[in-house]
TrEMBL record:
<comment type="similarity">
    <text>Belongs to the AB hydrolase superfamily. MetX family.</text>
</comment>
<feature type="active site">
    <location>
        <position position="290"/>
    </location>
</feature>
<protein>
    <recommendedName>
        <fullName>Homoserine O-acetyltransferase</fullName>
        <ecNumber>2.3.1.31</ecNumber>
    </recommendedName>
</protein>
<feature type="binding site">
    <location>
        <position position="320"/>
    </location>
    <ligand>
        <name>substrate</name>
    </ligand>
</feature>
<keyword id="KW-0012">Acyltransferase</keyword>
<dbReference type="InterPro" id="IPR000073">
    <property type="entry name" value="AB_hydrolase_1"/>
</dbReference>
<comment type="subunit">
    <text>Homodimer.</text>
</comment>
<keyword id="KW-0963">Cytoplasm</keyword>
<dbReference type="Pfam" id="PF00561">
    <property type="entry name" value="Abhydrolase_1"/>
</dbReference>
<feature type="domain" description="AB hydrolase-1">
    <location>
        <begin position="41"/>
        <end position="323"/>
    </location>
</feature>
<feature type="binding site">
    <location>
        <position position="202"/>
    </location>
    <ligand>
        <name>substrate</name>
    </ligand>
</feature>
<feature type="active site">
    <location>
        <position position="319"/>
    </location>
</feature>
<keyword id="KW-0028">Amino-acid biosynthesis</keyword>
<comment type="pathway">
    <text>Amino-acid biosynthesis; L-methionine biosynthesis via de novo pathway; O-acetyl-L-homoserine from L-homoserine: step 1/1.</text>
</comment>
<dbReference type="InterPro" id="IPR029058">
    <property type="entry name" value="AB_hydrolase_fold"/>
</dbReference>
<comment type="function">
    <text>Transfers an acetyl group from acetyl-CoA to L-homoserine, forming acetyl-L-homoserine.</text>
</comment>
<keyword id="KW-0486">Methionine biosynthesis</keyword>
Length: 343
């Protein structure tokens, strides 16, 4: 069973930046049925441009016949603040039908996203989450949430993520935003503003999501003759157009800034002290070819989260391996749960 719903927060949401969102809605989907003991909940935190339909964007891991089968699990995935898939974001009309805020949408941090989802968790009456899972920006949310509410989660699974967004990752995000800001239509405050810039930004992002090996394998020329019209060029154009067709530049800027804000140790005596708050049995998964979140960042998590396990996938897909290598992830999860239940 799939259930598409919208939760409206009962009160304005104060943001970490000091701004306040007067009206906040959180779009979410559920899959499967909550069992009588209410102990089969899996909560998924999604990445940058995904939505609440986890069966759509994480096939092979979620869905019938997969490790997280809705026949067995009650799966919850909520769209993050700042996105364009139903939760409050830059294109959401204001109070009493006021115009959307577009580029004036306030800074939303990962902590703000978690604050909204924590209210949703309480609204749903889910006192204990069996597994909290997320990759990339989703992993950053999951870590932040596990630090804030350590007693709420039994198991934590994070993939290709970090305790604090790196200067390298921030630089990639800034390069993408510069591409968007170079498109003057971004400042026109219309739903289609910044589309050319968003296309360029996505092309930049792909260089951090994939790897040298991945491009060599999938985009190499079949012959030596071409002087132009390369497959790799066409691929960048295609991926840019694909994102423009389903996303908007204002949400992209808002969410990339949120990712930059991620730092579990902020005002908590540092990263190590914050990670020590986590009580969930934790599996941290790195990807050998990930240049955006190198394995060293996941190894740091595993060192400082009490009792955490670290596993590394050998993959040529780069950062996107967390979405693609579902067979490897399934194997690691099966081993993790067996070891967890044996404790």
């Amino acid at each position: 069973m799939t259930n598409n719903q919208v939760f409206r927060l009962p009160a304005p949401l104060p943001l970490e930046s000091g701004a306040v969102l007067a009206e906040v809605r959180v779009a979410y989907q559920t899959f499967g049925t909550l069992n009588a003991t209410r102990d089969n909940v899996v909560w998924v935190c999604h990445a940058l441009t995904a939505n609440a339909d986890v069966l759509e964007w994480w096939p092979g891991l979620f869905g019938p016949g997969c490790h997280f089968n809705p026949a067995d699990w009650f799966i919850v995935c909520a769209n993050i603040l700042g996105s364009c898939y139903g939760s409050t974001g830059p294109l959401t009309p204001g109070e009493d039908g006021a115009a959307p805020l577009y580029q004036a949408f306030p800074l939303v941090t990962v902590r703000d996203m978690v604050a909204a989802h924590e209210q949703l968790r309480q609204q749903l009456g889910l006192t204990k989450i069996h597994t909290l899972i997320g990759g990339s920006l989703g992993g950053q949310q999951a870590l932040e949430w596990a630090v804030q509410q350590p007693a709420a989660f039994e198991h934590l699974v994070v993939l290709a993520t970090s305790a604090r967004h790196s200067p390298w990752g921030i630089a990639f995000n800034e390069a993408q935003r510069l591409a968007i800001f170079a498109d003057s239509t971004y400042f026109s405050a219309t739903p289609a503003g910044g589309q050319a810039g968003l296309k360029a930004a996505r092309a930049v992002a792909l260089l951090s999501y994939r790897s040298y090996e991945a491009y060599t394998t999938s985009q190499a020329e079949p012959a030596d003759e071409p002087l132009t019209g390369f497959r790799a060029s066409s691929y960048q154009q295609y991926q840019g157009d694909k994102l423009v067709a389903r996303f908007d530049a204002y949400s992209y800027v808002a969410l990339s800034r949120a990712m930059d804000s991620h730092h579990v140790g902020r005002n908590r005596s540092g990263v190590e002290a914050a990670l020590r708050r986590i009580q969930a049995r934790t599996l941290v998964i790195g990807i050998s070819s990930d240049v955006l979140f190198p394995p060293a960042e996941q190894q740091l998590l595993a060192r400082h989260i009490p009792g955490a396990q670290y596993a590394e996938m050998d993959s040529g897909f780069g950062h996107d391996g967390f979405l693609i290598e579902t067979a490897q992830i399934t194997h690691l999860l099966e081993r993790f749960y067996v070891q967890s239940f044996a404790r």
